[in-house]
Amino acid sequence: MKTGGAKATTAKATMGKATTGKATAKAGTTGKVSAASTSGTSARTTSTGRTTTKASAAKTSTTKTSASRPSGKAATTARKTTTAKKAAMDKRQETAAAFRDVVNMGPKTLERWLATDESKNAGDKRPGQESPGHRAGRRIVKILQTRKADLGEGDYEHMGKVVGYVRRSMSRRPKGNVRDSRWRHSLMNWGHDPIKE
Description:
The protein has 197 residues and is an all-alpha fold. It has helices spanning 2-68, 72-102, 107-114, 117-121, 132-144, 153-170, 182-189. It has two domains: 1-69; 84-189, no CATH class. Helices cover 76% and strands 0% of the residues. The longest helix has 67 residues, at 2-68. The chain is elongated. 14% of the residues are buried. Mean pLDDT is 76; it is low at 1-49.
């Protein structure tokens, strides 16, 4: 009888160990599942973090690009300014070319002419005052002696006046010999000698 009891006790103990082993195995399995679950969550979190970082970087890049580009209004203003400057430069070049075409007297020749009585008496003037043509001639001498880079807006305006005066006067050329005429003397005050070859 005692032997049978011992066997029964041994069997129960063995069953207890088996149950404990199953429990341990179950606990281990649960731990792995939890770990895997946690790992998956971390992976998702990491993936989301990278996506957010990329999105932020893209947004920052877009912001920098937008900042480096001028706005539509600013770009339009810049284009208008550039166009206006180019038009002004073209007008200056055209005026200077026409001035060189009508002024056929050099600065020294014109200066000597302006010192003569014929020059001082040419044109309309009040007694004791300088005629507009004589005054214009002195300005022409200065322009001819000035470098192109140093010419100002006022100089180009005077060039335009000279061109206009000479062209108008040439269209009203009197008949006959004009060598000693007041018409020629007035034109010479403006830098143009109509009989110069």
